[in-house]
Design brief:
By secondary structure, the protein is an alpha+beta fold. The chain contains three helices and 13 strands; from the N terminus they run H-H-H-E-E-E-E-E-E-E-E-E-E-E-E-E. Helix 1 packs across helix 2, helix 1 runs antiparallel to helix 3 and helix 2 runs antiparallel to helix 3. 2-acetamido-2-deoxy-beta-D-glucopyranose (NAG) binds next to loops.
Amino acid sequence: MRVVVGLLLLLLGLCGSGAQGEAGGLGEVAEINKNTDPKDPAEESTEQTTEQTTCDIWTELRALRDMVVELNVHVELLQRENSVQATELTSLGTRLTATESKTSDLEKENAVQATELVSLESRLTSSESKTSDLEKENADLQTRLSSSESRIDQLERENAEKPKVAFYTGLTDAGNLGPYNTDTTLKYSKVFTNIGNAYNPSTGFFTAPVKGVYNLQLTVFGYSAGYTAVYVYKNNQRIMYNLERVDNDGVHEYFTKSLVLELTAGDVIRLVLPSGRSIYDDYGNFSTFSGSLLFTL
Ligand SMILES: *[C@@H]1O[C@H](CO)[C@@H](O)[C@H](O)[C@H]1NC(C)=O
């Protein structure tokens, strides 16, 4: 608005300086026009010129007024636009403030979430590490378990395959045997126990079915006066001689021997009554021969 007024004054100033040269200003021109009637012909041309100038000035003034009106309209339009823009600015300012506030809140939330995220990541890493450790331990245990299982299977197989050998026999129910002229293999005929059938009552042989360590026992009862005795043979080799004197005083004699022998499969153990000696047995099981496999080799 100020600019427009300034422009108007400038235009008036320019216009006025042109008119003043002839008549000393607009007001004076109007006064001259009124006060110089009638006119002398000498002044006529001057008057005409003055009239002409006055007319131009009015024309210019009208043009200027039109311009001012036009400018006013323009200014009004600009003012309206300004007002609209100010309203819009206010609205935008309000929205900006609201958005800034929201942004600030979101930033705070973000910071909180970032902290939580870091904490969760740390926990996750720790958990993953623990899981990895447990997986390794589990794998180790699985390995050990399957190793143990295979060893158990092997032991079960070995145990199932392990030969079971045990026998227990009595010599006879017939009473006194001997003395004979030759060494005689004793056939223990009362077979009470014979697991694995390693003892053969028809030969009196105990034949080791597998290589191993065997425990053998024998008890000999002497009833008749003289000597009671027994040899132990391993295959055709004598490995033990046992002897007990029986007096004719009604006191009978016993002896019991025990052997632990390392035998290979097929080795034969038998008891032999030496020539000239006797041995006694009856339903009372006085003379017995027994043995068992302690363990294989
Ligand atoms: C002799 O031993 C067998 C088997 O153990 C038994 O049945 C029997 O009764 C025993 N004889 C005596 C007199 O104990």
